[in-house]
């Protein structure tokens, strides 16, 4: 209608400036052939879209497909071109699992806009503070000045294990999504995806994605909301925290079904009902599609086997495993902290599965479902468990897990190489692996002890230790993400 505005929208120089101002592109990056298309393929949450779900849906194509695999309902679309979703620091709440169903050689990346050393994102921690002041506007509170102030809620647990869901406040200025209305994509119908519930307070009924899955925001205290928001900006570097909490059974926060998904610089916090820790009850699930006969379907070229590259992430599942790599999936995990999960920290199973773990902390896992101990996963799981496939571990810290540190039981189907790592203070055996004579086990230059502390590898665990030391609690190793309170007996 407005010819002048139409000319502005077609001006590639305008789109270049917008891409630079929103940190989608910086000096040294490859210059795109079309700046407007580059802007659309690299959405920023919450600037372009309110929620991570809406941004992920915008970069997907084709109809929504629903299928039941291993008694678990999966809904997904297809990602046909390479794209990237950038997250500003702050908490984000998923309405349903993110299912990567990537076609061919395309890659989907979800990363924090504040990157880590080595390259991803924008290496400017001060930006997080500015973003906190401008977008996550906080009202003064008279109570709960720290996570510990909230620890007496729910069941009296002295450790701050609660999920406090944030009712996000909108910015005072129009977002770019409102200004550039032609960017396309389907937006969320409301900001309800930012709403959630205190998972210790209500019975477990409802369907994910429906309003009945989430409690009214007025029922959540300001102290809880402030505590969760503050957790994202705690420590030397602000971060994005992605949380999935659902009453449906055995649903992961992220599932890689086909193709390559890159996760960088994000904290994941997961909770679902159910006890199937093989087929869905995990924060990150790397698992191919299943056919009608219940067997995994191997992708045929040019399609790529489900592959997850997880870098600089903090992963916790309050109901199941941290990361599951199964049925021919491929995972590359580096500089991560997998901790305080109810079950195994990292599980590898199924013929052809491959997991590479480098400079990663796998600590304090196997604590059981503290929220629902009667119906949830019981306590007692390993840090890393290899049932089938190959796991290569180097320069890692695998400590204080409630069963073994590292286990590879099968001498015929499991292969485990571990080098230069700390395996300490696990509850049962420190390591169970095939003998080197079998050619399936390699154990070199590791520091193995039934007590002591492993040296932190990831910056997430280092930051957690630094925060506790600054607060004068050197003897307490608290998790670096908020946890759920114990459900009342």
Protein described:
α2 (12-21) packs parallel to α3 (35-41). A ten-stranded parallel beta sheet has the order 1-4-7-10-13-16-19-22-25-28, covered by helices on one side. A nine-stranded parallel beta sheet has the order 5-8-11-14-17-20-23-26-29. It has an eight-stranded parallel beta sheet with strand order 6-9-12-15-18-21-24-27, with no helix packed on it. 14% of the residues lie in helices and 28% in strands. The longest helix is centred in the C-terminal third of the chain and has 12 residues, at 459-470. The N and C termini lie far apart (63 Å). The protein has 489 residues and is α/β, with parallel strands linked by helices. The protein contains eight helices and 29 strands. The radius of gyration is 22 Å and the shape is globular.
Distance between the termini: 63 Å
| Tally of DSSP β-strands | 29
- In this structure, how is the largest beta sheet organized? 10 strands, parallel
Strand order of the largest sheet: 1-4-7-10-13-16-19-22-25-28
- Average pLDDT, all residues: 76
Shape summary: globular
Radius of gyration: 22 Å
Which structural class do the helices and strands define? alpha/beta
The count of helical stretches stands at: 8
**Residue fraction in strands:** 25-35%
Short description:
The protein is 14% helix and 28% strand. It has eight helices and 29 strands. The protein starts with a helix and ends in a 19-residue tail after the last helix.
Secondary structure topology:
Layout: H1 3-10, H2 12-21, H3 35-41, E1 44-45, H4 52-58, E2 61-69, E3 72-78, E4 83-87, E5 90-94, E6 98-101, E7 107-112, H5 125-134, H6 176-179, H7 222-232, E8 240-249, E9 254-258, E10 260-264, E11 266-273, E12 282-286, E13 307-311, E14 314-317, E15 321-326, E16 330-334, E17 337-339, E18 346-349, E19 354-358, E20 361-363, E21 384-386, E22 389-394, E23 397-399, E24 406-408, E25 414-419, E26 422-424, E27 431-432, E28 441-444, E29 447-449, H8 459-470
Parallel strand pairs: 1-4, 4-7, 5-8, 6-9, 7-10, 8-11, 9-12, 10-13, 11-14, 12-15, 13-16, 14-17, 15-18, 16-19, 17-20, 18-21, 19-22, 20-23, 21-24, 22-25, 23-26, 24-27, 25-28, 26-29
Antiparallel strand pairs: 2-3
Helix pairs in contact: 2-3
